[in-house]
Design goal:
With about 180 residues, the chain is α/β, with parallel strands linked by helices. It has helices at about 25-45, 65-80, 105-115, 135-145, 155-160; strands spanning about 1-5, 20-25, 50-60, 80-85, 90, 120-125, 150-155.
């Protein structure tokens, strides 16, 4: 995802090759930053430790919180990640606020779980669940990277799968009615 550099941002004396100068968009730059921090954080976790994540769901209108949380848990289990015992579910206030200026106490609580050493990262659905402001999102990513923590997004295909049981894949429970 590239965008043209506006002419007023091009310094005098830069060579002109007859083609527009391009740069990454903010969203592309932040996506690359998130992936790089994710890779670094996962590489820093010793192989003898289980990666653990806090699940975070932004419960906007139309979001099935339980199904979304179940998809996050299933994805974590397929990666052999542990899931923190408390899901972090953000119910945005109904008050009118400027876009991007939304308080996120549950996201802050998930970050506190990281700083207390309970989890290594936050697993959420998409970029839309993170702060809308590019500045606030970048600040969050950098703050987590200082602790070798990460933000991971659920692949879109996982949101479209029917919900399954919340049992871990290796559990051995007997269905009701079975002897």
């Amino acid at each position: 995802m590239l965008e043209a550099v506006p002419p007023d941002e091009i310094a005098d004396g830069w060579p002109d090759y007859g083609q527009p100068r391009m740069r990454q968009t903010d969203e592309a730059r932040l996506a690359n930053l998130r992936r790089s921090y994710l890779t670094s954080a996962l590489a820093a976790i010793p192989a003898s430790r289980t990666v653990s994540v806090a699940t975070y769901v932004l419960a906007e209108p139309g979001v099935d919180v339980e199904a979304t949380h179940a998809a996050l848990v299933r994805f974590a289990w397929t990666r052999d990640w542990g899931v923190y015992r408390v899901p972090f579910i953000e119910y945005p206030a109904a008050s009118i606020r400027p876009p991007g200026n939304v308080e996120r106490p549950e996201l802050d609580a998930a970050c506190q779980a990281i700083s207390r050493g309970f989890v290594h990262g936050i697993l959420t659905t998409t970029r839309a669940a993170m702060p809308a402001s590019s500045f606030a999102y970048e600040h969050l990513l950098r703050r987590l990277a200082e602790r070798l923590a990460f933000v991971a997004f659920l692949p879109l295909a996982w949101l479209q799968q029917p919900p399954l049981s919340l049992q871990p894949p290796n559990s051995t429970t007997v269905p009701k009615g079975a002897t």
